[in-house]
Design goal:
The complex is a heterodimer of chains A (187) and B (301). Helix content of chain A is 21%, strand content 32%. Chain A is built from five helices and twelve strands. A six-stranded mixed beta sheet of chain A has the order 8-12-11-10-7-9. A five-stranded antiparallel beta sheet of chain A has the order 1-2-3-5-6, with helices on one face. Chain A is elongated. In chain B, strands 5, 6, 7, 8, 9, 10, 11, 12 and 13 form a nine-stranded mixed beta sheet that branches. A four-stranded antiparallel beta sheet of chain B has the order 2-3-1-4. Chain B contains eleven helices and 13 strands. In chain B, 51% of the residues are buried. By secondary structure, chain B is α/β, with parallel strands linked by helices. In chain B, strand 6, helix 7 and strand 7 form a beta-alpha-beta unit. In chain B, helix 1 crosses helix 2 and helix 5 packs across helix 6. Classes of the chains: A alpha+beta (187), B alpha/beta (301). At the A-B interface, strand 4 and helix 5 of A face helix 4, helix 7 and strand 7 of B. Strand 4 of chain A pairs antiparallel with strand 7 of chain B.
Chain lengths: 187, 301
């Protein structure tokens, strides 16, 4: 999902690159999560100048990608999983919903916390209603509201077993991305 | 512009049209069934004070009075549970009626209202090839695809007049063609004076080229829906009339949904293909929507 120049057609993901992405997805959300995320789909990539985007597509789509698209440039396809740049994987917002149910790395926030999150704010102690067990500082968590809807992705700033030591206005998890991005980015 | 409509409709109807253009168009939303059941979203929005009224011919379409709330600011919007979309635009996808598993093409697809609507009708299966040329607008298309949880699209940037370079022969094609926007005067009054006859001729030429390009790649037996947000016959009935002469394998179909009024077969006293009566028009002064033209065609084998 970049604006820079791309290859003319999607390619099967390079195994080495996909392994790098997989290590970071599994590292963030638990062993085996990537395989469950992929299911029966195929990981493919679109190349950019300095990065590549990973997408999941049905296997039969590959038949359409044998030739390039002539004067047309592919921009995105299927389910965007994330981007790899200089060996570092960043999650796509579109994959968060698919991770719910595959991981216990969840943090449930209050209505006020949810609203603040959609303005790009991080999660403070007073807005935390519930967290997964045994989460460590630096670990990814899906941010959920009370209805079980995924609002974004955050990184824990503290171990969950130390949460009780925090005052209400102290940081629990740092906002990485949130659904408010749609409004902030596209109005 | 007014002179053309006086010639087309006469004084009384033109006056009614101009008066209707001064009245605001009701906000409408489409429930995204990829993300939520219709009844659940209706209850949630009603609990927030949004007044909803169903669109008679669209189960997923609602007129929505948000009061003082900005329609795009609710969680339900950010979560992709609904799409703010004009009733004519929702109707276009329903007229094409794409089915699960099919290969569908959406030409001039940005910002993605019709692509995301078709994806929900196709239950996120098959493939939608969504094409747009505009580098900026295509980002809105991608944003809406993500927000609405759509994962059956291939988004391509390029000139839709060169579709023959693509390895696709879709079952259905939707061409909501770039146009003068004369049907959007109720939303943007400046269009009364900002578009000239030269603009309309330019649009009509481009529309012809895009239609021809679409017809080339459409599978035999496939369906093509042509629509514009213009009420100008020069961008609608005249374009289709020329197209049918050049592409005799294309035939106009009846539209199964009951809305709007018939397409014109004798605008400005010029006799056109009589099957154009099967096309539909939505007009601000007749149907209280923005102006729109919708024509469904089949490619015979």
């Amino acid at each position: 999902m970049h604006g820079d120049e791309r290859t003319l057609k999607p390619e099967l993901a390079d195994p080495h690159d996909w392994d790098l992405a997989k290590q970071q997805i599994d590292g963030g959300f638990g062993e085996g999560v990537t395989d469950k995320l992929v299911g029966g789909l195929l990981p493919v990539t679109l190349e950019h100048e300095t990065s590549r985007s990973f997408y999941l597509v049905p296997k039969d789509w590959m038949d359409h990608f044998e030739n390039d698209f002539g004067p047309f440039t592919p921009q995105s396809l299927g389910t965007w999983v994330g981007d790899l740049s200089s060996g570092r994987f960043t999650f796509a917002i579109s994959v968060l919903d698919r991770l719910v149910g595959l991981t216990k790395n969840l943090i449930v926030v209050s209505r006020e916390g949810a609203e603040a999150l959609t303005y790009g704010k991080s999660i403070l102690k007073h807005s935390v209603k519930e967290t997964g067990q045994g989460l460590k500082r630096g670990q990814y968590v899906l941010v959920m509201n009370g209805n079980g809807e995924c609002l974004g992705l955050a990184v824990m700033s503290v171990d969950t077993d130390k949460l009780h030591r925090l005052s209400p206005k102290e940081l629990v998890a740092k906002n990485v991305m949130d659904v408010g991005w749609y409004i902030r980015r596209f109005g | 512009m007014i002179e053309r409509y006086l010639a087309l409709w006469g004084e009384a109807e033109t006056l009614r049209f101009l008066e209707a253009c001064e009245r605001p168009i009701r906000t409408s939303i489409r429930v995204n069934t990829l993300k939520t059941p219709i009844d659940l979203l209706v209850k949630r929005l009603q609990s927030k004070g949004v007044v909803l009224e169903g669109v008679p011919w669209l189960a997923e379409g609602y007129y929505a009075d948000f009061g003082s709330i900005s329609p795009g600011s609710l969680f339900e919007h950010m979560l992709g549970f609904y799409y703010i979309q004009g009733v004519p635009s929702m109707t276009v996808s329903r007229v094409l009626n794409p089915q699960p598993g099919e290969m569908v093409m959406d030409i001039a697809a940005a910002p993605g209202g019709k692509t995301t609507h078709m994806a929900q009708m196709m239950e996120n299966s098959g493939m939608i090839v969504s094409i747009d040329e505009d580098r900026v607008r295509i980002r809105s298309l991608q944003g809406n695809i993500l927000r609405c949880g759509v994962n059956n699209t291939l988004v391509l940037r390029g000139d839709a007049r060169r579709l023959e370079h693509l390895p696709f022969h879709p079952n259905r094609i939707l061409l909501d063609a770039p146009c003068s926007g004369e049907g959007l005067i109720p939303l943007d009054p400046s269009r009364k004076t900002s578009r000239s006859m030269a603009d309309i001729r330019y649009c009509a030429d481009r529309q012809q080229d895009m239609l021809s390009s679409a017809a080339k790649v459409l599978a035999e037996g496939g369906s093509l829906v042509y629509s514009t947000c213009s009420i100008a016959p020069e961008e609608n009935e005249f374009v289709i009339d020329d197209f049918l002469k050049k592409q005799p394998e294309m035939k106009i179909d009846d539209i199964a949904i009951d809305f709007g009024s018939q397409g014109y077969v004798r605008p400005f006293g010029i006799q056109l293909d009589k099957s154009l009566a099967r096309a539909r028009r939505l007009l601000p002064h007749e149907h209280k929507t923005e102006g729109f033209f919708i024509c469904r065609m089949t490619k015979e084998g």
